[in-house]
Design goal:
Elements lengths: L2 H15 L8 E12 L4 E13 L2 E17 L2 E13 L6 E16 L4 E15 L2 E19 L2 E12 L5 E15 L2 E12 L3 E14 H6 L1
Parallel strand pairs: 1-11
Antiparallel strand pairs: 1-2, 2-3, 3-4, 4-5, 5-6, 6-7, 7-8, 8-9, 9-10, 10-11
């Protein structure tokens, strides 16, 4: 195993040993991200996200996402879609259901290796937490950077800020860094550390992800 990967895993293990209370607990963030190309320009994004307060224990939330993406060029695309989110409180017998409709634009700009990706998203969320129903809107901006390290191994990092469209304006911030490995041009695995800041809480997560693509049009043409 490359030395950089050993160092990252050791760092993550050290964080887990220091966890003592709810916010300091080292939880897990498991993510499967797919991009299903149905034509040269059109594709269907899918995301399944599962989070636990502790490592693969003490369920926190699950999110399922899908939509449609149109690529105007290799560097610019736009998407619309829907999220379903079910979450549970840490120490209370309560749950929350959210339905989200979102629109986003993704832009890649040249930078080192060989670009950085900007993602701008507008979300409208209907939240149900009995007996209340709430509609809110927020904008999100994510800056993402990947850099090759050695053969199929690469470094990946992103920061994403969430801003409400009414007070209080700050919603949350997510910072992540880690390593990825390309098993195939259309299949990658990633592991890293994710810090999730809210106004009144913060969480440490080990993120484990799988990123893949399918190409239905190319298979059909064969």
């Amino acid at each position: 195993m490359p030395k950089k990967a050993i160092f990252l895993l050791s760092f993550l293990y050290t964080i887990s040993l220091s966890a003592q209370n709810k916010e300091d607990l080292l939880g897990s963030w498991t993510e499967i991200i797919g991009q299903h190309h149905i034509s040269e320009k059109w594709s269907i994004p899918t995301v399944a996200l599962l989070q636990h307060y502790e490592m693969f224990d003490k369920f926190q939330f699950i999110m399922l996402r899908s939509g449609v993406t149109y690529a105007f060029s290799k560097d610019f695309s736009a998407s619309v879609g829907y999220d379903y989110v079910y979450s549970e409180a840490f120490s209370e017998d309560s749950f929350t259901i959210q339905h989200r409709v979102w629109e986003e634009a993704t832009l890649k700009t040249p930078f080192l290796s060989p670009y950085i990706a900007h993602r701008f998203r507008l979300e409208s969320t209907w939240k149900r937490q009995e007996p209340e129903y709430d509609l809110s809107h927020r904008v999100r901006y994510r800056l993402k950077f990947d850099r090759p390290l050695y053969k199929s191994l690469y470094f990946t990092a992103f920061n994403e800020v969430f801003i409400n469209l009414k007070e209080p304006y700050f919603n949350q911030n997510r910072f992540h860094f880690g390593l990825g490995y390309s098993l195939h041009q259309d299949l990658k695995i990633e592991i890293g550390y994710l810090k999730n800041h809210f106004r009144r809480a913060h969480y440490d997560r080990i993120r484990v992800g799988m990123v893949f693509k399918t190409r239905f049009l190319e298979q059909k043409e064969r």
